[in-house]
Amino acid sequence: MRQTLIAGNWKLNGTKQSIIELLAGISAGLNNSMNASVAVCAPYIYVPLVETALKDSDISLGAQDVSAHTSGAYTGEVSASMLAEFSCEYCLVGHSERRSLHIETDAEVATKFKMLKDQGITPVLCVGESLEERDQGVTEDVVKQQILAVIDAHGISALENAVIAYEPVWAIGTGRTATPDQAQEVHASIRVLLESFDKTIAETTQILYGGSMNPANASALLAMPDIDGGLIGGASLKADDFLAICQAA
Ligand code: 3PY
């Protein structure tokens, strides 16, 4: 039985004040009837603030990216060991905005993934196809390739205790969402891919859906057998919306 995970991806949003208020709102609304574990992925600069605010809370702290390097002359970068010092439990890697806007390659994503594993931080490996790729009918090949990049570089054991987030690029920040059936089809194909390497990893890996998940569509998506949670963009910035998604889990 896989635990549902609802993770907020705040992206480049928030102020000290708004984040404190958001976390207070989420903490006040979470209750035992919710069937999900909860995480928030903060911009780097707010990681210490969120760490302090979440002390004694069940909400886990995550970051949105990590350096592919351990230390050295890499201006502007933040390493996995630095994130570990601030109790980061999760970190996104390969979000489509990093892949497209910052030209991150599969190989770089795989290196970042390993950096996190080495520090005991759970990587959330984001994968997904563009609209063009979906129209060409190559969705599953694209997603498979993105996952194989990690397996080929670091072995299937690297995926133990990792999370995968399927985020169709055409559903990110567009208000468009994959239908539950479309998402389930890709999630099931990911599970089959993992199964071809290791049955236990296939059964235990949480595969989240991301891409405009909101209170209106969360229940139907989360009811799908291979959708184990959500990576939430815009709706994670409003406590009520985020809580409604946690409630739907
Ligand atoms: C979105 O929902 O837009 C996301 O990109 C979540 O990561």
UniProtKB/TrEMBL annotation:
Protein localization: Cytoplasm
Name of protein: Triosephosphate isomerase
The record's Gene Ontology cellular component field reads: cytosol
Highest taxon of the lineage: Bacteria
Q: Which gene encodes it?
A: tpiA
> Which InterPro entries has this protein been placed in?
Aldolase_TIM, TIM_sf, TrioseP_Isoase_bac/euk, Triosephosphate_isomerase, Triosephosphate_isomerase_AS
Query: What Enzyme Commission number(s) apply to this enzyme?
Result: 5.3.1.1
Alphabetic keyword roster? Cytoplasm, Gluconeogenesis, Glycolysis, Isomerase
- Enumerate the active-site residues: 95, 167
Q: Which organism is it from?
A: Leucothrix pacifica
Query: A single GO BP annotation from the record?
Result: gluconeogenesis
Function, in words: Involved in the gluconeogenesis. Catalyzes stereospecifically the conversion of dihydroxyacetone phosphate (DHAP) to D-glyceraldehyde-3-phosphate (G3P).
Question: PANTHER family under this entry?
Answer: TRIOSEPHOSPHATE ISOMERASE
Q: Name one Pfam family in it.
A: TIM
Q: What class of enzyme is it?
A: isomerase
Q: Which HAMAP family match?
A: TIM_B (MF_00147_B)
Provide the family line.
Answer: Belongs to the triosephosphate isomerase family.
Catalysed reaction(s)?
A: D-glyceraldehyde 3-phosphate = dihydroxyacetone phosphate
Pathway involvement?
Carbohydrate metabolism; erythritol degradation; Carbohydrate biosynthesis; gluconeogenesis; Carbohydrate degradation; glycolysis; D-glyceraldehyde 3-phosphate from glycerone phosphate: step 1/1
Q: How does it assemble?
A: Homodimer.
State the Gene Ontology terms under molecular function: triose-phosphate isomerase activity
- Positions contributing to substrate binding: 9-11, 173, 212, 233-234
Q: NCBIfam families under this entry?
A: tim (TIGR00419)
